[in-house]
Amino acid sequence: MADCERLQEIARAGSYIDKWVGSTTDPSSIYKNITEGDLPPLPDACRERYSFMAIYLKDTGAIVGYFDVYHGYPDAHTVWIGILLIDPAYQRQGYAQEVVEGIAQVTRDLGYTELGIGVHLKNWPALRFWVRQGFDRIVKVAGDAEHSEMTFAVVSLRRGL
Ligand SMILES: CC(C)(COP(=O)(O)OP(=O)(O)OC[C@H]1O[C@@H](n2cnc3c(N)ncnc32)[C@H](O)[C@@H]1OP(=O)(O)O)[C@@H](O)C(=O)NCCC(=O)NCCS
Questions:
Q1: Of 90, 93, 134, 145, which sits most exposed with the smallest number of CB within 10 A?
Q2: Which of 89-103 are b and which e, b meaning 16 or more Cβ less than 10 Å from the residue's Cβ?
Q3: Which residue's CA is minimally distant from atom 1 of ligand 1?
C-alpha cells in the first residue's frame, strides 16, 4: 500500500493509451486492484489466484511500472496477464521484456503451460511488443464489429511456456 500513490501516478502517465482502448484511466482502480483484485468472469474466481505487482529497478529501487496476472484463466493451464504498464519515462529500455521473461519463468516453474494477454487492436506499439515476446497465436477477437474512430476491439494472444 505504501507504493499506491506512485503506482497511481504511473497509471495517470499511461493514460495516453485511453484513445486507443476507448476507456478513461481511473487511477483509483490501482487501490481496488491491490485490495480486492481484478478477477476474471469465472464462477469460482478467487483473490488468491490474482497478483498485482509493482516493478522496481534493481539498482535504485525506483518503481517504473506494474502488472497483474490471474493464475488459471481462461483455463486451468493458462496464466492471464491483465495489464502491463511501464512509465513512459522508462519505456524502450528493455524493462517490459525482462518482466515478461520473469513471468514466463515463474509460471513455467509453477507448472502452467500457456500465457495469455488481451491487447486493443488500436494499441499497435503494444501489439508489436507482445508479438516480439512470442505471443504469436490469435485465439479471439472481441469488441465492436465495425471499425470507426469511436469503436474498439481486443485481440486475445497466447504463447506457450
Ligand atoms: C507495451 C509496453 C509495456 C512495453 O514496455 P517497454 O518497457 O517500453 O518495453 P521494452 O523496452 O522491453 O521493449 C519495447 C521496445 O523497445 C525496444 N528496446 C528495448 N530495449 C531498448 C533499448 N535499450 N534501446 C532502444 N530500444 C529498446 C524493444 O526492441 C521494443 O521494440 P518494439 O516496440 O519494436 O517491440 C509499454 O509500451 C507500455 O507500458 N505501454 C502502455 C501500456 C500498454 O499498452 N500495455 C500493454 C497492453 S496490456
A1: 145
A2: ebbeeebbeebbeeb
A3: 126
Task: Find, among 79, 57, 61, the residue nearest to 70 by Cα.
Answer: 79
Residue 44 grid coordinates: 469460482
Copy the grid coordinates of residue 84: 502491463
For ligand 1, atom 33, name the residue with the nearest CA: 129
Residue 82, class by beta-carbon neighbours within 10 Å (0-12 exposed, 13-18 middle, 19+ buried)? Answer: buried
Residue 119 CB–ligand 1 contact under 6 Å: yes
Residues 23-58 have pLDDT tens digits of 999 999 999 999 999 999 999 999 999 999 999 999
Global pTM value: 0.95
pLDDT in tens, 72-125: 999 999 999 999 999 999 999 999 999 999 999 999 999 999 999 999 999 999
H helix runs in the chain, sequence order = 4-13, 18-21, 29-35, 95-109, 124-132
Torsion of CA 80, 159, 131, 105, to 10 degrees: 80
Q: CB of 86 closer than 6 A to ligand 1?
A: yes
Residues 54, 155, 40, 12, CA torsion sign: positive
Atom 48 of ligand 1: nearest residue by CA position: 83
